[in-house]
Each structure stands twice: as structure tokens, then as C-alpha cells.
């Protein structure tokens, strides 16, 4: 009988890679929270009265730098959270290690690139669209493979 490797195990290189990129993306999302807070302090743009550091300040919701980072963070939530679920399910289909590892890398690198070109150093389109669609395409491919693996 051939050696069976547990799919959710550190012995499975696909699962290890998924864990690694998931952890990187969690840290990246934490970084977005910190970047939002940093911009709020730099621009003195606070959304809650209790956060105002001076009676001269007023609650503001319209600083373009803060809003750009918040939009990038929301985009992460809309795209990285599905990756966490779909990526784990994809790992359970026992995919080709080469394909799976490169899909995980594509999602991770493109989500980091998306943040860089959208919220850190603003780069004109199509940079943001390309990075968005690489991650979306990889996650959609994994979701399709999960469905084809007999999810129904």
C-alpha cells in the first residue's frame, strides 16, 4: 500500500504553502489597519469624537488618503477572506503541488502588489486591475476545481 499523506498536515507541502501565504496575508491585512491609523494621525482625520486629540478638531470622514487606504483594506476583506476558505478546500482536493503552490503564490504576491499600487505608491491603471484579476482568477480557478472534485 502506498504511503498516504494526510492533506491537512505539515507533511503536505501544499498545505504548508497555503499556511504560509495565509499567514503573510493576515499580516498584510493587519498592516492595512495600521496604515489607516497612521494616515488618520498624519491628517488628523478621526471618525469618532472620543478620538479627537484637541477640542479644535472635528470629526471628519473625507480625507482622500485615509479613504484610499480604507478602500484598499475593504478590497482585501472582499478577496483575501474568500481565498482563505477556497484555498483550504482546494488543498483538500489533493491538487498538483506545482499548480497549487504557484496559485497560492500568485494570490499572495498579487494582493501585496494591489496594496502597493493602490494605497502606498499610487500607480495608474492597469496596475491595480492586473493585480486584482490575478488573485481573483487564481481563487476562482481553485473554487472551480473544488466544485469539479465532487463537492455536490
Automatic annotation (TrEMBL):
Its main location: endoplasmic reticulum. Keywords: Acetylation, Endoplasmic reticulum, Membrane, Mitochondrion, Mitochondrion outer membrane, Transferase, Transmembrane, Transmembrane helix. Its EC number is 2.5.1.18. It catalyses: RX + glutathione = an S-substituted glutathione + a halide anion + H(+). Pfam families: MAPEG (PF01124). Homotrimer; The trimer binds only one molecule of glutathione. It is a multi-pass membrane protein. Conjugation of reduced glutathione to a wide number of exogenous and endogenous hydrophobic electrophiles. This is Microsomal glutathione S-transferase 1. The chain crosses the membrane at residues 21-42, 80-104, 116-144. The lineage of its organism: Eukaryota, Metazoa, Ecdysozoa, Arthropoda, Hexapoda. GO terms for cellular component: endoplasmic reticulum membrane; mitochondrial outer membrane. It is found in: Endoplasmic reticulum membrane; Mitochondrion outer membrane. It comes from the Eukaryota.
Amino acid at each position: 500500500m502506498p504511503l498516504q499523506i494526510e492533506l491537512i498536515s505539515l507533511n503536505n507541502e501544499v498545505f504548508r504553502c497555503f499556511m504560509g501565504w495565509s499567514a503573510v496575508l493576515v499580516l498584510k491585512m493587519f498592516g492595512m489597519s495600521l496604515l489607516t491609523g497612521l494616515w488618520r494621525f498624519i491628517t488628523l482625520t478621526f471618525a469618532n469624537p472620543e478620538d479627537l486629540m484637541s477640542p479644535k478638531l472635528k470629526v471628519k470622514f473625507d480625507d482622500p488618503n485615509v479613504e484610499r487606504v480604507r478602500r484598499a483594506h475593504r478590497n482585501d476583506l472582499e478577496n483575501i477572506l474568500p481565498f482563505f476558505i477556497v484555498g483550504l478546500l482546494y488543498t483538500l482536493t489533493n491538487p498538483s503541488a506545482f499548480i497549487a503552490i504557484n496559485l497560492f503564490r500568485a494570490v499572495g504576491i498579487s494582493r501585496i502588489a494591489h496594496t502597493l499600487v493602490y494605497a502606498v505608491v499610487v500607480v495608474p491603471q492597469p496596475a491595480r486591475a492586473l493585480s486584482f484579476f490575478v488573485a481573483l482568477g487564481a481563487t476562482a480557478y481553485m473554487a472551480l476545481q473544488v466544485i469539479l472534485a465532487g463537492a455536490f
